[in-house]
Amino acid sequence: MLRMWLVAIALIFAAPAAVLGHSWYDADCCSDKDCFPATNVKYYAYDRSYTADVHGHHVRVGPEVRKLLSLDAGYHACIRARPGMEIRVKCWYVPGNSRKQDDIAGQDAQG
User: Which H helix or E strand runs over 41?
Assistant: First the structure.
């Protein structure tokens, strides 16, 4: 019985953290279910694009993709993954400490 109460208490404290994990993603871009941290991020200056691994997919983030400022120190992508269709990056979050912020909405270009 004590174990059941401990599990219930843990779930109560874990649930808000799960909700808040996506709460800063832009609502116009993400449905809070399709945004994920990106790993193995590479930037290609010649065409201002990125490649990254996002939620089990290797994606290309072209210069046409909407770029927003990440609120943590990491890259994040909002993706649209539908069966039978190519993975599409809807928004790309760039950390504030990155020098590759040339397209972040609301910021001047930086080198």
Answer: strand 35-44
Partner residues linked to 67 by β-bridges: 92, 104
Rounded Cα gap, residues 85 and 99, in angstroms: 33
CA dist 22 to 38, 52, 64, 77, 91, Å?
14, 19, 23, 11, 14
Closest CA to 106 of 77, 49, 66: 66
Pairing of strands 88-95, 66-70: parallel
Residue with tokens 């109560």: 12
> Which pTM was predicted?
0.67
Q: What is the pLDDT of residues 14-53, one digit of tens each?
A: 433 333 445 678 887 876 678 899 999 999 999 999 999 9
Residue 45 phi, psi dihedral angles, 5° rounding: -65, -30
CB-hemisphere CA count at 13 Å for 107? 19
8 vs 69: CA distance, rounded Å: 36
